[in-house]
Amino acid sequence: MKIEEYLSAMKKRCSRRKYTNRPIDSKYVQQLEDSIALYNKESGLNIKLVIGSGAELFSGFRKSYGLFVGVQNYIAMIGSKTLPNRMEKVGRFGEKIILEATAMGLSTCWVGTSYDKNAAKELCEGNEELDCVIAVGYSDEKHSLKERMMEYGTHRQNKSKEALIEAEEHVPEWFKQGMDAVYLAPTARNLRPFVFEYKDGQVTASTTVPTETAMIDLGIAKLHFELGARVGSWDYGNGSHYYFDDKWKDGDI
Ligand SMILES: Cc1cc2nc3c(=O)[nH]c(=O)nc-3n(C[C@H](O)[C@H](O)[C@H](O)COP(=O)(O)O)c2cc1C
């Protein structure tokens, strides 16, 4: 997908927690499968798209956080326990898939806790771990009352963009654009548990709160930065560096 399409999907995306029973168009199922196959190869993860049995994970299951209705399909973010940087990869590649799904007109939501993890565990083989799922499907344009309540609850948490930046010197335009994109990144409970530091012309990104999903959040945020700044790539790891490269020349990523 073109960089412009990722950026416009980023602006459009928001978490949706109520889904209709319309099945995902088969051409989009195929496109999602193709992306997943590609990203599994690139990352070493074992991401799986599950069509039609979302109810097993979400119905009748109650938790204080998350009020999901009508989930039919989901993406299981699975990887081997020994895979280096697994959680960060889950964030990066899951968010890439989410932005592509958004461009297809699909609704999504990252789900770290409010689902029946045991019901999904059978998708794991041997030494694998399921870190998160992503609900995916169609939603009504209008947000339901329950959805608006959830949005009110989480969006009240209002960490400013400035609070995510550490810089003692003037920052270049590409860094600002990167941070604008970071600000659009979803995070668990909207906590934004990270900081991006600009120092001596170098950028690093680190977590600030040791939550269970902080490395997934960081992976998502680093992808957003990369798409917004468009001058380089990241090393994996907490506190790792951003380095310049010219992969951005042709507009495809
Ligand atoms: C790693 C991760 C885990 C999440 N887990 C849940 C969850 O268990 N239940 C839920 O309702 N929302 C969950 N969310 C969605 C966030 O609450 C949501 O992204 C955040 O409030 C920002 O809102 P937005 O996505 O509409 O921009 C999760 C998000 C992320 C990134």
UniProtKB/TrEMBL annotation:
InterPro entries: Nitroreductase-like, TM1586_NiRdase. It comes from the Bacteria. Gene3D superfamilies: NADH Oxidase, putative nitroreductase (tm1586), domain 2. One of its GO terms (molecular function) is oxidoreductase activity. This is Putative nitroreductase TM1586 domain-containing protein. Residues 7-229 form the Putative nitroreductase TM1586 domain. Transmembrane segments: none annotated.
